[in-house]
Amino acid sequence: MIPSPRRTAMLLVGCVVLGVGVALLLAADLGSDGYSTFVNGLTITTGVDFWIVNLVVGVVLVALAALRKVYPGVGTVVQVVLVGVTVSVVLDLLQTPDALGWQAALLAAAFPVLALGIALYLGSHTGAGPAEAAALAWDPPVPFKWSYSVVQGGGALGGWLLGATVGVGTLAVILLLGPAVDLAARLLSLDLHQERDPRAEQPDLA
């Protein structure tokens, strides 16, 4: 089903905002998110290119989420592609600061941007990306703000055991990003849950 113009706009804007947030996080160079840490660890261990490992891990997570009736949609594909493109473009415009204080400022700025982007694109109800789908697959019984922390934390631990590095930014994502997304969604009156029956008609947003 083709999303309505409103939902399409929320998806596109949310993914661009999320991409900017990811770029800020990476430019701070204080540790990436747990999902990327896991992919990086697998890349180090296997020698396979990052983008291939990222694709395989993403497909596996989305498939596992589907077993819990969190089905992929057009937003799943758009999230992966548009966020990746946005990150590449924004990183070309940013440089990692030499001063630790400015790195910390970039890290702090990344969180509200990340939270807003995730809340908007999930609020479009067009399908979740890999990490978010894995978290939503367990909500209920575990609220997204905590299941997302578990997904990010598990990814960081797995990646670290496989040889990837973690930093204060990684810990911040694990502890703070899930609650921040939940807060953004509540402030915007958005429901993060995706349609669990792909045959059901998704009502348009008011």
From TrEMBL:
<keyword id="KW-0472">Membrane</keyword>
<feature type="transmembrane region" description="Helical">
    <location>
        <begin position="157"/>
        <end position="181"/>
    </location>
</feature>
<dbReference type="InterPro" id="IPR038750">
    <property type="entry name" value="YczE/YyaS-like"/>
</dbReference>
<keyword id="KW-0812">Transmembrane</keyword>
<protein>
    <recommendedName>
        <fullName>Membrane protein YczE</fullName>
    </recommendedName>
</protein>
<feature type="transmembrane region" description="Helical">
    <location>
        <begin position="74"/>
        <end position="94"/>
    </location>
</feature>
<dbReference type="Pfam" id="PF19700">
    <property type="entry name" value="DUF6198"/>
</dbReference>
<feature type="transmembrane region" description="Helical">
    <location>
        <begin position="100"/>
        <end position="122"/>
    </location>
</feature>
<keyword id="KW-1133">Transmembrane helix</keyword>
<feature type="transmembrane region" description="Helical">
    <location>
        <begin position="51"/>
        <end position="67"/>
    </location>
</feature>
